[in-house]
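Task: sequence design from structure.
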């Protein structure tokens, strides 16, 4: 063979075919983000609400593109010399997380519609869609380079979204704290990834798993350090204690729809990445990450519940703070099956995915109610929910249902089912001590969830005279603490009402057939 022919063959071997259908969900989201950004330059100010409609239509199209992929058997960006090693895999695990992420972004868009006019509209919708595109890419990533890029594409727009309310001190501080903690996490993670690459010579997760099984003795310490640092980076992203310190202030300072987005989509991104690196890439080091994740799970749920328990009903923005600390506690529950996978196999991961689906539905519903209440009660205190049933009975019933699901009590059967599956995963893996810690924390959580639920149905307090200088702050939770505590606003926005109705209907449907969640969520990855 001539040199020219050899060069042609070598060049041909570098050409990869792209399965556009497999990558459709994140691609559609990213393309619509660019369309919104360009359209913002030409759309007149009075027509800016059209951008929100374009964003919602794009997210719906991305969700519909999951239907042709439901078989879960497509891959792309594969090595030319090994078609079984691919950088992107649309298996059932990826599809379930993409459904969660894109559905969460869609609900966030719905509860944002009424308030996006108070923010830079084009930038807001572009950043939200860009972050959702990265979040949809991550669960299908099967090499560390794509994984890190997807994680940063999901995270970087989120910094700007948190601080998008110009001139708001709380928003700026929240964005700065979120940025610094996330950048630190990324730096630590990249250092770990570089160590893993140096020890194995590859970035593909399946090949890393094969190479880590027989790392030379002189590189063993380097490989273990790489595994540990990578896990620390993801611990920041999942808000696992003691790396959770950024959560409460970030949620309080962010616009409420973005706090809802971070609590669900941001958590899904962190946990899906953690699952991929631990169970697929690092199974040979399970004796390292298994006990560490078990301890982190116990610490995270305990600190989260203890802090949520201490929230005062009359403190400004205490409703959002309670949901923030609740999300930290829920992160602890989500870590349990991942830790159990180190002892009893990767099939335990289905419990984490099932719990994440339940949590996403009911937590987004709870935030949608908080957005609705914040329109008339901008200080967003727990005491502002007293007597909600007398004012808006259907909204109060929906909120009570969401809180009972988070607590794991009937009629929120899906919440009870999710907690039982996580508890079973710990018991089956021989982690009895962790199951005991979880049971104690569930009891602690019952108190503050039931306390909030009880407030909904109490008789409303006598209406006090509004203080001078009261002003609405919208749904951002950034009202001045010295301002008034009530603002008269008309009928609730249709989009927020639709979001509450959708999440309530989804929660009821999942409670009727909870076994379908585990069956659907536990397929395809292992």
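Answer:
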């Amino acid at each position: 063979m001539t040199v020219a022919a050899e060069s042609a063959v070598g060049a041909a071997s570098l050409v990869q075919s792209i399965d556009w259908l497999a990558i459709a969900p994140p691609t559609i989201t990213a393309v619509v983000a660019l369309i919104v950004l360009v359209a913002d330059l030409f759309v007149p100010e009075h027509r800016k609400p059209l951008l929100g409609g374009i964003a919602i239509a794009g997210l719906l199209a991305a969700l519909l593109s999951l239907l042709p992929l439901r078989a879960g058997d497509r891959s792309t960006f594969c090595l030319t010399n090994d078609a079984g090693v691919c950088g992107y895999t649309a298996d059932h695990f990826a599809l379930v997380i993409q459904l969660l992420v894109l559905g969460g972004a869609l609900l966030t868009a719905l509860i944002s519609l009424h308030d996006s006019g108070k923010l830079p509209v084009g930038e807001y919708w572009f950043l939200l869609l860009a972050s959702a595109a990265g979040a949809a890419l991550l669960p299908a990533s099967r090499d560390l380079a794509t994984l890190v890029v997807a994680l940063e594409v999901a995270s970087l727009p989120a910094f700007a979204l948190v601080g998008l309310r110009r001139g708001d001190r709380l928003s700026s501080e929240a964005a700065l704290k979120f940025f610094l903690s996330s950048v630190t996490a990324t730096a630590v993670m990249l250092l770990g990834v570089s160590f893993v690459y140096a020890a194995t010579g590859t970035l593909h997760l399946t090949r890393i798993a094969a190479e880590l099984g027989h790392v030379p003795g002189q590189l063993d310490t380097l490989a273990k350090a790489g595994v540990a640092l990578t896990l620390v980076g993801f611990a920041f992203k999942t808000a696992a204690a003691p790396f959770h310190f950024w959560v409460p202030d970030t949620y309080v300072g962010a616009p409420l729809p973005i706090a809802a987005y971070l609590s669900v989509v941001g958590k899904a991104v962190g946990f899906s990445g953690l699952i991929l690196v631990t169970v697929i890439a690092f199974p040979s080091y399970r004796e390292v990450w298994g006990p560490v994740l078990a301890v982190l799970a116990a610490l995270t749920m305990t600190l989260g519940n203890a802090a949520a328990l201490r929230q005062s009903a009359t403190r400004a923005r205490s409703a959002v703070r309670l949901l923030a600390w609740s999300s930290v506690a829920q992160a602890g529950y989500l870590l349990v099956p991942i830790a159990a996978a180190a002892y009893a196999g990767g099939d335990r991961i289905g419990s984490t995915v099932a719990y994440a689906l339940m949590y996403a539905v009911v937590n987004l519903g709870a935030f949608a109610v908080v957005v609705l209440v914040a329109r008339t009660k901008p200080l967003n205190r727990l005491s502002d929910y007293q007597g909600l049933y007398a004012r808006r009975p259907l909204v109060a019933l929906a909120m009570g249902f969401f809180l009972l699901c988070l607590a794991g009590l009937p009629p929120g059967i899906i919440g009870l089912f999710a907690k039982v599956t996580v508890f079973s995963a710990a018991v089956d893996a021989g982690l009895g001590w962790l199951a005991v810690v979880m049971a104690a924390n569930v009891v602690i959580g019952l108190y503050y969830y039931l306390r909030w639920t009880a407030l909904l149905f109490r008789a409303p307090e006598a209406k006090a005279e509004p203080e001078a200088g009261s002003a609405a702050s919208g749904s951002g939770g950034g009202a001045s603490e010295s301002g008034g505590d009530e603002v008269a606003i008309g009928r609730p926005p249709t989009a927020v009402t639709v979001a509450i109705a959708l999440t309530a209907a989804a929660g009821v449907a999942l409670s009727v057939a909870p076994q379908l969640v585990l069956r659907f969520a536990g397929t395809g990855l292992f």
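Residues 169-200 form the longest helix (32 residues).
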